[in-house]
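thought: user wants a sequence for this fold. calling inverse folding tool.
action: design(structure=
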């Protein structure tokens, strides 16, 4: 079967996508943790740094995102916001998208293709708005970090 844009929205595929994303968030929460300064996977510290920051002397737009996501997954909202304000937005966005995909799969079974098409259009519009917000927060944080130096 050829995988096209239309086939991605048919059948149970949205439910599988949603369930996989939720499982990935749960697995990440179980496997990794962080402090505001370090990341630990399976109890071992990851000793990497930002290559962009080493090369150019300024943080990249996603500096702190790994720590922020892990802090958010462990319920430490304040620490996550201080590390990278886009991290809680990213976690919330992934969780909401996963939930929306599970809802879309259930909706498709009970409604006509025309009604389902309208829902798909709304989901795509919401995703575009979310992506714009996420990138705006990332950019604003990056500019603030650069000028705070």
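)
observation: tool returned 149 residues.
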């Amino acid at each position: 079967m050829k995988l096209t844009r239309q086939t991605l929205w048919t059948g149970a595929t949205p439910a599988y996508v949603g369930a996989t994303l939720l499982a990935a968030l749960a697995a990440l929460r179980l496997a990794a943790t962080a402090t505001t300064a370090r990341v630990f996977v399976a109890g071992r510290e990851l000793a990497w740094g930002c290559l962009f920051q080493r090369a150019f002397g300024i943080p990249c737009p996603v500096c702190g995102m790994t720590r922020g996501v892990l802090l958010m997954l462990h319920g430490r909202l304040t620490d996550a916001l201080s590390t990278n304000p886009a991290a809680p937005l990213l976690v919330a966005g992934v969780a909401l998208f996963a939930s929306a995909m599970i809802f879309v799969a259930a909706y498709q079974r009970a409604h006509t293709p025309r009604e389902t098409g309208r829902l798909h259009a709304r989901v795509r519009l919401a995703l575009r708005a979310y992506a714009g917000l996420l990138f705006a927060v990332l950019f604003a944080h990056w500019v603030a970090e650069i000028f705070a130096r």
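thought: summarizing for user.
answer: Here is the designed sequence. The longest strand covers residues 32-34.
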